[in-house]
Amino acid sequence: MTNIALKRIANTLRQDIISMLVTSKSGHPGGSLSAAEILATLFFREMRINPEDPRWADRDRFVLSKGHAAPVLYAALAEKGYFPKEELQGLRQTGRMLQGHPDMKKTPGVDMSTGSLGQGLSAANGMALAGKLDGKDYRVFALLGDGEMAEGQIWEAAMASAHYNLDNVTAVLDFNGLQIDGTTDSVMCSNPLAEKWRAFCWHVIEVDGHDVDALVEAFAEAKQVKGKPTIIIAKTVKGKGVSFMEDQAGWHGNAPSVEQGEQALKELREEALTLG
Amino acid sequence: MADKVATRDAYGNALLILGAENPNVVVLDADLSKSTKTADFGKKYPERFFNMGIAEANLIGTAAGLAAAGKIPFASTFAIFAVGRAFEQIRNSVAYPKLNVKIAATHSGITVGEDGGSHQAIEDVAIMRAVPNMVVLVPADGEETRQVILAAAKYIGPVYIRMGRLAVPLLFGEDYHFEIGKANVLKEGTDVAIMANGLMVSMALEAAVELALEGISVSVVNVASVKPLDEETIVRVAKQTKAVVTAEEHNIIGGLGSAIAEVLGEKLPTPMVRVGLKDTFGESGRPQELLEKYGLTKAALIEAVHEVLVKKLG
Known about the structure:
Chain A: GO terms for molecular function: metal ion binding; transferase activity. Chain A: InterPro entries: THDP-binding (IPR029061), Transketolase_CS (IPR049557), Transketolase_N (IPR005474). Chain A: Its cofactor is thiamine diphosphate. Chain A: Pfam families: Transketolase_N (PF00456). Chain A: Belongs to the transketolase family. The structure holds two protein chains of two kinds. Chain A is of the alpha/beta class. Chain A contains ten helices and seven strands. Chain A has a single domain, classed as Thiamin diphosphate (ThDP)-binding fold, Pyr/PP domains (Rossmann fold), CATH 3.40.50.970. Chain A has helices at 3-24, 30-33, 36-46, 70-80, 120-133, 152-163, 184-187, 193-199, 212-224, 258-274, and strands spanning 61-64, 140-145, 169-175, 178-179, 182-183, 203-208, 230-235. In chain A, strand 4 (178-179) and strand 5 form a beta hairpin. The longest helix of chain A is centred in the N-terminal third of the chain and has 22 residues, at 3-24. Chain A is globular. Chain B is built from 13 helices and 14 strands. In chain B, the strands form three sheets. In chain B, strands 3-2-4-5-7-6-12 form a seven-stranded mixed sheet, sandwiched between helices. In chain B, helix 1 runs parallel beside helix 8, helix 9 (200-213) crosses helix 13 and helix 10 crosses helix 11 (256-267). The longest helix of chain B is centred in the last third of the chain and has 16 residues, at 298-313. The interface between A and B is medium-sized, with 34 and 29 residues.
């Protein structure tokens, strides 16, 4: 898939995020919108997956450690064909499969149940260890949040990925700089992030997380790195693509109203036109 | 006195059997492999043994990932650290997605001894029992531990196995049969039933012998499978004896006694006395002295039987 096609998919994912949150009246738009290019690049370019066979033993795995961004994952899975797009409208509703946070028992294509922050990288490491034991060449991707960097378990896991030379693990840090109570710097400073991960013996790549070309290159580089895990620190904008949500901590966990949703969709459709 | 073996030693041996039988069995530990007895597995199958360092949250999370990719991980550390430190990882990364992780916890209860109250898990059964999808097993001796470990490996889903540090009497031979969800009636009696698990089972058997001299006929039921609980056997025995004493090396809140009280309360209200830690932490000391101090002895069981008989006849 071409890079321009990936940009269009990111735009589609954003529209789906808005539309499902308007329907559910509940969910997390900010950190879902910030990760749209990352998921588009992973699911439509980088990962070896087959929506016809979600449990394929040789597939690449994806762990959404920042599980509250479930809407962007669901949008990507639906777009990829794991389930019909209409299912997106059932987000967070009783008896439906799309849970508030990813549930591997309920949703095809979800490789790990996540949402309680800090736990995803450990699970990714476990899958990667199993892959090495089985002599399989699948890779494991984990999307982390920057607020999540305050969780001790992340650093326990980071140490273990490097200790076990898990070069089949690629983490992506959605570095949007905001969390519920404000900027990540003001709530709990985790800077300097790149230096921390380097100190934990990871290969670190820093990119603009909305630049698809840069993301494609970063993933290509990560694939070449042997003997150690790679983290792609992707600088992003929380709420990206919707003017009134961009860089606003208040849009972390609040769903847009019908009117706000229409405004957001209008902006995203206009952006889509510029993508040709 | 019968030969003694610690359930943790039997666990280490059972892992070696599993290691040879099933290449998907992997073992994780958190820098306690000599104490939890996983070290021998690590020596024999180094590629399938992962020391995660002193990092229990990551220990459980990594086990979850291994299980998600088809492995059968046994994650081991002391009960206090597994259930205490990593509770939410057990709940959300293991039990919620029903992943095939075996949490094999050693050093439970006050017989941890000298290390003291901070290291003596007395609430782990209560906590694990309250988690949906979790199977909770508390073996009584070395042979039962062997069977519990093999059964846990065969069962698909999360299992919590509670083991001890202290050497305990060997009670069972190879003809013994443990099954998840089944209680074992070790001795039939008519006046009172002692329902116990872990190291209290051998004391229950000894108490029954002594009570027989007084003319009291005691049933002894080994309830190694706390969850799922064998309600049928518990109700059948309680119907027969009309008086029940429970015994566990655990707080009386939330453990085996509570589980049995829940069943009998709903299905067959029966006079009961629960023997266990009376909502108190332990302390440093020799295991045997602590058992005496905290009322986990044959004498305490005999006293509880007398007490429950008064209730029954009153």
